[in-house]
Amino acid sequence: MKNRLVCVVAALCLLAGCGHAPTSHDTLSVVTTTPILADLTRHVAGDRATVTSLVPSGADPHTYEPSLRDVRTVVYSKVALSNYLMLEPHSVIKTIDASLPAGSVNVSLAEEAQKYGAEVIPLVENANLDTVWLGLRVMGKGTAQGADRSSSVHLQLTSVDGPGYLTAYITGTFGRPHIYYSTADGIDERDDVELPTDAHTHMSWAFSAPGVYKATFTATLSTARGNTSIGTQTLTIAVGADPRTIPELADRTVIDKGHADVAADIDDNTMTLLSDPTGGGVRTQKRLNLDTSVIWVPPKALTEIPPSPTFRFLGRPGSSIHQLPQAVLGVHVHGEIDPHLWMSIKNTKAYVQVIRDTLIKADPLGAQTYRENTSTYLAQLDETSRYVDRTIATIPRGRRQLITSHDAYGYLAQAHGIQIAGFISSNPGVEPSMAQRRKLDQTIADLKVPAVFLEPTVLRDSSVLAAIAAEHSVKVCPIYGDTFDNRVTTYIDLMKFDADSLAACLG
């Protein structure tokens, strides 16, 4: 529905003459997805372009939903710059791809920057949970079937056989739940999760009663060519009792730790269960047959429904349910590569060079201006890199330990000799995993860290990390990653602020 709305609005705008930006004839109209990309682009473009960010400062670029005003902005643009690598929600990417006028330039900077020397690192998720971390995944590119970055796969829940209700939901950055699957009110077309190609997502899975559940999923690939059926498979979930004690499940492979994803492979049109016992990524993943595997939701997954009215969909507050937690807060759709490349200034310099060449392609008459502005800005980035190095060098080596609430700082750590000691994202829908708390408690105690770091948007809300920090009498200090606010308004501000905060709180 959302994609149809984007296309309809774009078509109406084009018919109404919106294809030409209401700016002077020599001003290029550029749209970016995030404020950080907009800032980089303005330094390259100077006065030759009007640059607009779809995501406003202070908003979460991982969860932002585009408006009709955003569609109009895209329709007016001659250049669109996204980060992608699944940093932005698929709805933002589809809005750009569906609404950008013919002949405009559309670039995913993270992918292109690798041709200019940017280095990528894998997104390794090793949150230590007491239970299996269950999600959904799309494997492959689907190139042979005409798939591109605007294509998607629908994973629809078509039936559930079990003793109680099954609910799968995500908890957003600010604590608001969004239901993906729910059998409490029957099963219909709403029980459908849409994912980009080569992506996966995590959810909380709640079960109202113990017993064996059989959940059947149907996967469909949607491209510009039409829809292609990937297949139908049934996931077996044992809630409560050990499945090895249940005769019908005794011979199955039991999945009770690490990651596990119900996966649709759009290259070979199959469905599988992708298991990753250690969270090590592609190195440790195993493909399992859903017919011979079982997910175990053990008795320790029993939890009380929170008193907040927002979680009434799970049942009566205070009553018990079995739940596999989401673990990572927020809408968490991503691929295998960490998309936060800009946290390395070397990578950002590659972004800037891609932006330069993209603007030259769209506006050849401005080539000299773009090259001169780029040269000036690259020199500023070099000085910023030296500043960050000098500042972090003031921290004793043994104290360069970063504990935070967002897995966005791998590039910063790699570039400037910092150790990611741990991260934890609170999920207000469940109590934090005891394994997570024990691991973080032990990490803080063993490393004797004087501070942990939270992004300003998290500081405004309650945080498990802040609570654990208080228990250990360590400071909670600010750090920026994805966006700006009134205090940090440029990329260089962001990098210098983070370096200063790390030095002040750890040094």
Textual characterization of the structure:
This protein has 507 residues and is of the alpha/beta class. The protein has three domains: 2-121 and 337-380, Rossmann fold, CATH 3.40.50.1980; 133-324, no CATH class; 394-506, 3-Layer(aba) Sandwich (Rossmann fold). It is 28% helix and 27% strand. The protein contains twelve helices and 24 strands. The strands form six sheets. It has a six-stranded mixed β-sheet, with no helix packed on it. 49% of the residues are buried.
Strand order of the largest sheet: 9-6-12-13-18-14
Major sheet summary line: 6 strands, mixed
Radius of gyration: 24 Å
From the spread of the alpha carbons, the general shape counts as globular
**First and last CA, distance:** 52 Å
Structural class: alpha/beta
Layout of secondary structure:
Elements: H1 2-15, E1 28-32, H2 35-45, E2 49-53, H3 68-75, E3 79-82, H4 90-99, E4 105-108, H5 109-113, E5 133-139, E6 152-161, E7 166-171, E8 177-182, E9 192-196, E10 200-202, E11 204-207, E12 211-223, E13 226-239, E14 253-255, E15 259-265, E16 270-276, E17 286-288, E18 293-297, E19 302-304, E20 320-324, H6 345-362, H7 367-393, E21 401-404, H8 410-416, E22 419-423, H9 434-447, E23 451-454, H10 456-459, H11 464-471, E24 475-478, H12 491-506
Parallel strand pairs: 1-2, 1-3, 3-4, 5-15, 13-18, 14-18, 21-22, 23-24
Antiparallel strand pairs: 5-10, 6-9, 6-12, 7-8, 7-11, 11-20, 12-13, 15-16, 16-17, 19-20
Helix pairs in contact: 1-3, 1-4, 2-6, 6-7, 7-12
